[in-house]
Amino acid sequence: MNFKSQLQRDAKPSSPNTDSENESDSGEVFHDARFPPEEEAALLASSHAQKSEANTLFSSSRYSEAISTYDAALSNCPTYLDYEIAVLKSNISACHLKLEEWKQAIEAATASLEALDREDPPPKKKKDETQQGHNSGQKQDTNRGHQPRPYPSSSDTSTETSTSSPSVIELDPSSDEASALARLNLSDSRKASISRIRAKSLLRRARARTNLSNSPAPSSTSTWSLLSAAQEDYLLLSQPPDGPIASALPPAERRAVAVALRELTPRLNEAKERETAEMMGKLKDLGNGILKPFGLSTENFKFVKDENTGGYSMNFQGNTGSGGGRGGGAGGGGG
């Protein structure tokens, strides 16, 4: 049993108030899983020592050993300290990138971003924006219940600095009140640190997704999907140009993001056209298999687009030169 497990077993409720306790159907009482301050500090000290060791291993290009040591640091880090977890996961993603383990890099960077979104929940999107992209950071853990507190901004493997986000935040009436208040409670230095780690994790995930799309067999995810997801990450890094995430990137990285976005556009179009053609080919083969017992094939059916309405009409053509078939009347509405 490691140090954290022993402390977790002996941990007492953070408050004597019985309202913070939950009782299961079996009668067993569960407490808020926070450690007393002294024990939390001991766990953090152990976790930080292992993280420092992992940083040294990373600097020595011993990436596999660094991953194991970062994992050890995670095992000692209290699970409700989301910022600490985000930094470790982001560093693990950097190791996987060096090892060209793209899928693992994506997973670690995503875990980092989810932890940051719990620490500093992003504003909820308006209804007309919810159809654009995916937001992996909306999950909330109702059992965490911790108050944000300042951390050093030099926790990551690099020593880059960033610009603090504005100290005055206007509450969004459509956002969750608790999330908005949590954002107000964050200090300027803490918000700057969160933006810096968020930028690093987005950049690492975007690069991993782009590299995975170049692999001979990019897993079960299509090339187009991977490139679209990478483009979304790069857009988050670049817009708005003076936002906290973009400002957290050094100038060289900002230029790299701009170049990546320009290069992705033709690749996205090419991948979309290629995968659309492959899909249509598979549908055609399926149709031919269904029509074959009737002596027909998909070549017997011709679709003609009406340029005025944008709809299509279907014409049937016989196999033995029976002349152009009659319109099947399968016109679709324009739009």
Q: How would you portray this structure in words?
A:
With 335 residues, this protein is mostly helical. It has ten helices and four strands, in the order H-E-E-H-H-H-H-H-H-H-H-H-E-E. It has helices spanning 3-10, 37-59, 63-76, 82-98, 102-119, 177-185, 188-213, 223-238, 244-248, 251-291; strands at residues 22-23, 29-30, 301-305, 312-316. It has a two-stranded antiparallel sheet with strand order 1-2. A two-stranded antiparallel sheet has the order 3-4. The longest helix is centred in the C-terminal third of the chain and has 41 residues, at 251-291. The N and C termini lie far apart (64 Å).
Structural features:
single chain, 335 residues, mainly alpha, two-stranded antiparallel sheet, 10 helices, 4 strands, 4% strand
Short description:
The chain is mostly helical. It contains 10 helices and 4 strands; from the N terminus they run H-E-E-H-H-H-H-H-H-H-H-H-E-E.
Major β-sheet profile:
2 strands, antiparallel
Radius of gyration: 27 Å
- The oligomeric state of the chains shown is single chain
Question: What is the number of helical segments per DSSP (H or I, 4+ residues)?
Answer: 10
Low-confidence blocks of residues: 6-26, 129-171, 322-335
The best one-word shape is: elongated
**Number of E-type strands:** 4
**Average pLDDT for all residues:** 73
Which structural class fits the helix and strand makeup?
A: mainly alpha
SSE string, helix = H, strand = E?
HEEHHHHHHHHHEE
Distance between the termini: 64 Å
- Trace the largest sheet across and list its strands: 1-2
Strand content: under 5%
The percent of residues in helical segments reads 40-55%
